[in-house]
Specification:
This protein is of the alpha/beta class and 242 residues long. The protein has a domain of 155 residues: Rossmann fold, CATH 3.40.50.300. Helix content is 45%, strand content 13%. The protein is built from 9 helices and 7 strands, in the order E-H-E-H-H-H-E-H-E-H-E-E-H-H-E-H. The C terminus is likely disordered. The structure holds P1-(5'-adenosyl)-P5-(5'-guanosyl) pentaphosphate (G5P). P1-(5'-adenosyl)-P5-(5'-guanosyl) pentaphosphate binds next to helix 1, helix 2, helix 3, strand 6 and helix 9.
Amino acid sequence: MAKLFRTAIMGPPGSGKGTISKRIAQNVGLQYLSSGHFLREGIAANTDAGVLVKGYVERSMLVPDHLMSRLMLPRLEQLTGHSWLLDGFPRTIAQAKALNDICQMDLVISLNIPFETLRERVSDRWIHPASGRVYNMGFNPPQVQGRDDVTGEPLIQHADDRPEALQARLRHYKDVAKPVMNLYKKSVLLSNAEAASKPLGSLSQGILYQFSGTDTDRIWPYISSLLSTKISTQPLDTCQPS
Ligand code: G5P
């Protein structure tokens, strides 16, 4: 029977969660689930859940835990038997505990990016609101300035990406992320080599890996190598990213 691999990526707004998740999904083939994407999808389709969460997402405030769990957990329950990567969930200790109740995580990646870098990235960020596609004028610019590559529609900037708003969002992120990180790192953080020698699934805690730096392209090889070490030589039971 193929092994399952359950992982999540955490980090403040603009830390590169989405960019790195897409690389992981492409390279490792894990099913990729982004909480931000599901929220924006519900809002665009005007679903009941979308209406409830719209005000929070538009103001970059955390959506209440019970709504997030209702959005994410059924999707994960449908993926029993598949390996996956969560981007942006869990964000709070209540979400992490709800997730623990339905499955055991194998690995949690946390991105630790300096504030000045986040500020520069976010102020250069342009978004295609309908799809959530994200561009950065220096790092991954659109083919035509101000236009989405796929639809050609105009790109926008979020008001909440201005520096004062970003600073408040980061403070809030740190407050809520700390207990989540403590839950996953609990006791001693194992080195890559120590952790790699233990069978997957035997570590209910000590599964947090933190990566620091200013460039996604420099962090990525470390994450890629960690994943290769952690994912056993057995083929994963995966499905393609949707
Ligand atoms: P999201 O969608 O999870 P955020 O705010 O956490 O959104 P965000 O801002 O989308 O995260 P990210 O995914 O961490 O950032 O980073 P990214 O998009 O990959 O990169 C940011 C920018 O930097 C991009 O322009 C990228 O091209 C560029 N970039 C990346 N790497 C580099 C680099 O090395 N150099 C340079 N120059 N640029 C780079 O959540 C949205 C909202 O949904 C709600 C909240 O309201 C949230 O605000 N929400 C939840 N609420 C409660 N609980 C949850 N679990 C929730 N999940 C979502």
